Amino acid sequence: RLLLVAILTSIIGILIILYVAENKDTIIFDVNDIDESYLDQIVRVKGTAGRVGLGKDITIINLNDGIYDIKVIAFDNSTLIKEGMDLEVYGMVTMYKGELEIEADEIKVR
Questions:
Q1: pTM across the whole model
Q2: Cys bridge to 61: 1, 33, 44, 72, which one at CB 3.0-4.6 A?
Q3: Residue-wise pLDDT tens digits, 45-78
Q4: Rounded distance, CA 72 to CA 103, Å?
């Protein structure tokens, strides 16, 4: 009986961890919401892919909401992302050469 309780408790704990991991940072910002107050913070931002630049092991995406834009840096070759795609980006806001950017940990096509 004690073994059954231990197994059920373990399963419930694992399910809670999976739920929390999947639903991290549920607030989704627009591009125009991101300013210097978010520097060095993790955010989730939605927008449309503008110009997409591919380099060796890096992809640079101009994410925009029709008025404002921000650069998204992905340290891989994200060749599947094309201009005009609606994206959701999860990553850290950084400053590079005086401009805000998002270093993407995760990019989803919406």
A1: 0.73
A2: 72
A3: 999 999 998 888 889 999 998 889 999 999 876 6
A4: 6
